Amino acid sequence: MDDTPALIEAAPPADGKPGGYRVLARKYRPQSFADLIGHGAMVRTLSNAFETGRIAQAWMLTGVRGVGKTTTARILARALNYEVPGEADRPTVDLAREGVHCRAIMEGRHVDVIEMDAASHTGVNDVREVIEASRYKPVSARYKVYIIDEVHMLSTAAFNALLKTLEEPPEHVKFIFATTEIRKVPITVLSRCQRFDLRRVDGGLITGHLKAIAAAEAVTIEDEAVALIARAAEGSVRDSLTILDQAIAHGGGSVSAETVRSMLGLADRARVIDLFEMIMKGDVGAALAELSDQYDVGADPAVLLSDLAAFVHLVTRMKHMPAMADDPALTEAERARGKAFADALSVRVLSRAWQLLLKGIAEVQAAPRPLPAAEMVLVRLAYASDLPTPDEAIRQLREGIAAFQGGPGGPGSGLGAGPGGGGLGGGAPQAMLRTVAADGRSGAREPARPQPAGEPTLALATFDDVIALLAEKREIGLKIALERDVRLVRLEDGRLELNPLPTAHPNLAGDLGRKLTDWTGRRWIVALSREDGEETIQSRRDAARRMAVDDARADPVVSAILARFPGAEIVDVRLEAQEAAAETVFDPVGTMADDLDGDFLVPDWVPSDFDD
Fold this sequence. Notes:
Number of strands: 10
Structural class: alpha/beta
Radius of gyration: 35 Å
Oligomer: single chain
């Protein structure tokens, strides 16, 4: 039943009088199992059950709105009471011809097929009437069928009253329940029913169905418009027909993509992709201008951001599932340009854009002025698209500080030196650092690629070389553990001896040895020793910081400031070069810290204070 069905239009009323206009969702409501789309598994189960005589006493149909629960219930009631004099006199799913009871059942007016809306009949008295009436045999049909829609709305007492009859109903009674909230139905009721989950209909099936209906209605419709309607329906056939009905009226008998976009407040998919490209290039001005243009022609800012998020999701799926490009629900622009973005962008960049958009959509929906809120989201996206990952930022910061310290204006010339002495006000080291930072940033999009195991390309002469290699390989958790939790005892080519602190994890040595062996192409032994060894790297850094604070306190200018403001303290000492290099680490609009999660390869034994 997964193919586009033949369209069966309901016959005119029995009195022969022409009726008024019927909406497409009613006019093309399925009349048999062959007309259903997307529910082949359920039809096969029922077909086998009817063939073998294993017919259940109750069924539970569940699914989101518009997938056909009530229609399926009527078709099932028709199949249970199917009768063609002289040809068929038993339940069947083959409903090719109209039987004696078929039209009355499908129109909801058969005396033996009772439909009840549980939303308006929630009490125990309503269920008591059903129980009392179920004792009497059907008037003309084979079975008396009770269809209870939105059954989850029944009260607890009503459910309890129904249990006994539902477990042991008379032979001539069948129950069909439908609900959109299956979790609200008591398990005692579910255990007495056969359950069918009517899932969302695939976009490709809805697309074919809409084209067939448009042809039957003699309506001209563009392929892109069909794709837009199918996407907006979100798997609901009824929603797709309702939107198509509105689009036909809106377009005066023909449906174009522009008509659908204008009607639903959607943005042009091609322009959404253009906006995405501007953001990934970091062109903030062009992105804001494009947002303003789309807003002027009726695009809703929140919907536009949702479309951007949907395109990010599409590109991510195409990166891992190239066959997605063949989806008939996609436009040509989405297929071609989505594949190009999937080849060009890393998962890290796409994940960061997805996280920012999810936060931005909520902000825009809650903002009193949606357009400025959407503009700020695009600014954050544009800046974040070019930011380095945390390990790359740390490496750039280290390289920038090293370049500064090796220059003529390094700290060795004295913290208190004046502008001409190469101290904090030195201009040449600052320019040098900015050059290094800029070069590093431009290359941040290309991650380091590990060399094949067994190919000796790395030489580790010092413990700092080991730390630098861990940073390069993105093993940040292991790097921090070596800096905090071990003292270096001895380092030789192929052998590393460490004195672990009580906070060190017992698997640290084995993990480090395996990784060094893989990366260098030769065997490395990492041994634990009881010798004291050197200070930890973290201890040396803390000592250097304390010394810098003491030197700063001794500076005449700083000393005068401390004396002028009683109670003031020196919190930290930072070189101007460090501040400049830090610009490559933090997001200019303050969102980088929220979006760096998940970029580290962190072992499960990383210290619990790693986030600090």
